[in-house]
Amino acid sequence: MNFLLGAFKPACNILITFSDAKTRKQVPMKNENGQMVMVPLFQSQENIAAKISIEPLQGKKIEHNGVKVELLGQIEMYFDRGNFYDFTSLVRELDVPGDIYERKTYPFEFSTVEMPYETYSGVNVRLRYVLKVTVSRNYGGSIVEYQDFMVRNYSPPPSINNSIKMEVGIEDCLHIEFEYNKSKYHLKDVIIGKIYFLLVRIKIKNMDLEIRRRESTGSGANTHVETETLAKYELMDGAPVRGESIPIRLFLSPYELTPTHRNINNKFSVKNYLNLVLVDEEDRRYFKQQEITIYRLLDS
Amino acid sequence: MIADGVEDEEKWLAAGIAGLQQNAFYMHRALDSNNLRDALKYSAQMLSELRTSRLSPHKYYELYMRAFDELRKLEMFFKEETRRGCSIVDLYELVQHAGNILPRLYLLCTVGSVYIKSKEAPAKDVLKDLVEMCRGIQHPVRGLFLRSYLAQVSRDKLPDIGSEYEGDADTVVDAVEFVLQNFTEMNKLWVRMQHQGPTREKEKREKERSELRDLVGKNLHVLSQIEGIDLDMYKETVLPRVLEQVVNCKDEIAQYYLMDCIIQVFPDEYHLQTLDVLLGAFPQLQPTVDIKTVLSRLMERLSNYAASSADVLPEFLQVEAFSKLNNAIGKVIEVQPDMPILGVITLYSSLLTFTLHVHPDRLDYADQVLGACVKKLSGKEKLEDKKATKQIVALLSAPLDKYNDIVTALKLSNYPRVMEYLDSETNKVMATVIIQSIMKNKTRISTADRVEALFELIKGLIKDLDDAFHDEVDEDDFKEEQNSVARLIQLLHSDDPEEMFKIICTVRKHILGGGPKRLPFTVPPLVFSSLKLVRQLQGQEENPFGEEESTTPKKIFQVLNQTVETLSNIPAPELALQLFLQCAEAANDCDLEPVAYEFFTQAYILYEEEISDSRAQVTAIHLIIGTLQRMHVFGVENRDTLTHKATGYSAKLLKKPDQCRAVYACSHLFWVDDQDNVKDGERVLLCLKRALRIANAAQQMSNAARGSAGSVTLFVEILNKYLYFFEKGNPQITVAAIQSLIELITTEMHSDSSTLDPAADAFFASTLRYMEFQKQKGGAIGEKYEPIKV
């Protein structure tokens, strides 16, 4: 029995430990199996220091052709399964070929790593960062271990942040003017604004503000676009008359939003929209979509 | 169909309550376990039941009240949460995460209430935020209830003066601003209801709206209770803002209700000081608004205010309340040409009541009101509208009630002009009211001018105003009316004979046109009133001024003569005759022989020409005899003529007993105790003998006709006359004559043919007893009686 078990077991245990694991912030992330796991959080330009300990199974030795660790930034398209595009790839050779008889520890560090893109998990695309440890062997295949970590990049408040102000309407039917106080919002921001009714000839039942995320992947004829509604927030109940102005105050914090990503490595984009929807008594929908930029502001 | 609707509604309400209770249950559980997240979740779900559109306001209210109770518990929980260290600011944000707006806003108001209490932010900021955010509910019923909830939870947290929420940043201005804004928004929603939904359901909608009106009005009530609103602020901010909303909403129901609300909730003192502004709003209201009721209530309130204390009166004068009200009413009437006349009169009636209460000394005001009323009425036909006429009666009665004095009312030159517009029926009613007022208050009307005015007022009773409805008049009512006129005439009096004479002439002028039915009622009091004057003049024969007096008894008699004559024409000869005799007697007392003679002549002519009924003749002849007997003014010749005539008439009466009695009564014409020149014993005896003859004849006729002799009463009566003259010393009446008469009576009484007449027997017996008594009494009379044997 023991023998059998041992046959399928990896020849060694590989443990990746971040050197600042105790102090570094951990955030939940969905792994490939759909389970939530806690992973450390980094941002661009940070040093990623860790140590790898390789411990052969009891009484065994490992012959290897070398040990290396890679830091990979990958984009994975779901429709193009198994195809990874590495946009970042850093390597450290940790050991020359030889044998490992007992537990051996390799500290290493990637300093000021450029990680321009954030970790992202969308409908059709995933962007991940991972540390990959490879113990190369001639036979029995190489032993590989992965450690995911998350990257979030923070932006300062934009220097120019104009409000969005627009008048829209259907001739002789409905004219409204709406205003959102900004065009760029951070994830915990509040959307303040108002809708001013210039002309109302339809019987409006209610009005909602939606936050929609549009993810487009691929390019050219191969472009896939997925739109999700992340928030639906009722702004108004009942039929207004001309001259009414309805306030907007939408807190973004309760929603799981993603910052806007524009053309990530020519592979995908994530855009955010505010969609103002008016519904009339016959359940016809009148809407106007406006793009907003969402960014991640460093928690102070 | 409608029943179904009601049933369905019950079902929906039941379902709503069930949903609400279920979520309230979970909410309670969350509250008990201090689970904020679940508490918010379930309270939002619970409040979602209020999102329904299916319930009428009435039913919705039921649902709302249940939610309201639950929210109180939630508010307590929030309060405890903050005590446990949860930041109120966070809570305030947290509740805003709710996706549905209605639950979100209810929760926001609830947390907001706790927020203000915590004083972590200025009350005004929170209030402002809440009232702004509530704009999200544009559905009228849901919006009204939400804002009503806001008003309810905020009402004890306004930064009023003296409130714990007042601070440097929070002033009463903010409190007012908040309430005003909430009021404005609520009113807009309320008015909007009117224009939503199909036209055929208008009535239903109006009913629903009236069910909701108190929600809107509550804001005004809250305003009125803010201590910090002083007169200046009320004048500068509150009232103009409220009125602006009222005027601009252009909605009949809202305008009516809110104007009334303003008048009822704010202090009278404020109304008085802001009359300009308040009244200025009225002409701007919709033409269909029932302004008259609202304005009337305002005036009523102001009247009561004026009555409350004498100290406030100067305020009324200072602000010229009357002229402002008057102008406002004028304007309202002007801009509402379709206002029914009833409305116009009601308005003026209220204004009149107001001015009478507030400015009882300013008759000119009252007259102005009446004048304005006349102006409005002019150009119109007489009023047909029953309610309007009733209102005019009220209008005209007001001054009478107030002053208890018609004299004051008579000074109102427009008073009679208003009466012109009443139909004759109402005119009479009004006239009766006036007379009753005079009589109740025993008002003295002592100048001819006023009498003239008064009769102008009550001419409905004096004359037939239109000929149309004569026959319908109830006889009793007519008598009642005319009797009251008669009483009125008696009340007119002036101590100055000149004036009194003028009064008489005035009255005469008016009543003579009254027609045959009225004259018998109205002439006698006038005649007696005149005679009273005559006697007054006679009492002060010496003219104290030594001037030529224009009013002499002679002149009055001339007038009287003509007056009474009218009666004989209508014809009412008996009455005329009586009055002539009264006049004659008065002339007698004034030593005006020719006048007295003239009156007698008139009386005799009437007797001869007009009085044909034998019974009336008997009465008349006795009156004539009685009066003539008392006349001392006549010379021998005139007296002879008149007595001769009277005796002649007496003898010509139809029935023998009447003849007999008249004739023996005539005996007195020849023997007047206190006039020495009238003591003609012979003619007395002649009369008595003639009476005896007639009595005999009567006896015989009775015998012939019925087979039994008549009563001896006549004989006994004549015996009494004998005794009278005997005592008075008429030498022609002898003992023998009396003796024989007694015997005659005794024989008659014992004759077979005599009928039994106990009354006559008793009469005779007592006459005999009298004689016996005189004998026993002795003295000169006793001696005279002594020879008579009984």
Number of separate structural domains of chain A: 2
- The general outline of chain B is elongated
As a percent range, the share of strand residues of chain B is under 5%
H and E string of chain A: HEEEEEEEEEEEEEEEEEEEEEE
Keywords (chain A): Cytoplasm, Endosome, Golgi apparatus, Membrane, Protein transport, Transport
Subcellular location (chain A): Cytoplasm; Endosome membrane; Golgi apparatus, trans-Golgi network membrane; Prevacuolar compartment membrane
Family (chain A): Belongs to the VPS26 family.
GO cellular component, one term (chain A): endosome
Commentary on this structure:
The complex is a heterodimer of chains A (300) and B (790). By secondary structure, chain A is mostly beta strands. Chain A folds into two domains: 2-151, Immunoglobulin-like, CATH 2.60.40; 164-295, Sandwich (Immunoglobulin-like), CATH 2.60.40. Chain A is built from one helix and 22 strands. In chain A, the strands form five sheets. In chain A, strands 2, 3, 6, 7, 10, 11 and 12 form a seven-stranded mixed beta sheet that branches. The relative contact order of chain A is 0.16. Chain B is mainly α and 790 residues long. Chain B contains 38 helices and no strands. Chain B has helices at residues 2-32, 36-48, 57-83, 88-94, 101-118, 123-133, 140-154, 172-193, 202-224, 231-248, 252-265, 268-273, 275-281, 291-308, 313-318, 321-335, 341-358, 363-377, 386-403, 406-410, 415-419, 424-441, 448-457, 459-462, 475-491, 497-511, 519-539, 553-569, 573-589, 593-609, 614-630, 636-651, 656-666, 681-706, 713-728, 735-750, 758-777, 779-785. In chain B, helix 16 runs antiparallel to helix 17 (341-358) and helix 37 (758-777) packs across helix 38. The termini of chain B are far apart. The model of chain B has no long low-confidence stretch (mean pLDDT 85). The A-B interface holds A 204, 206, 232-241, 244-247, 249, 251, 253-254 and B 51, 93, 96-97, 99-102, 104, 132-133, 135-140, 142-143, 192, 196.
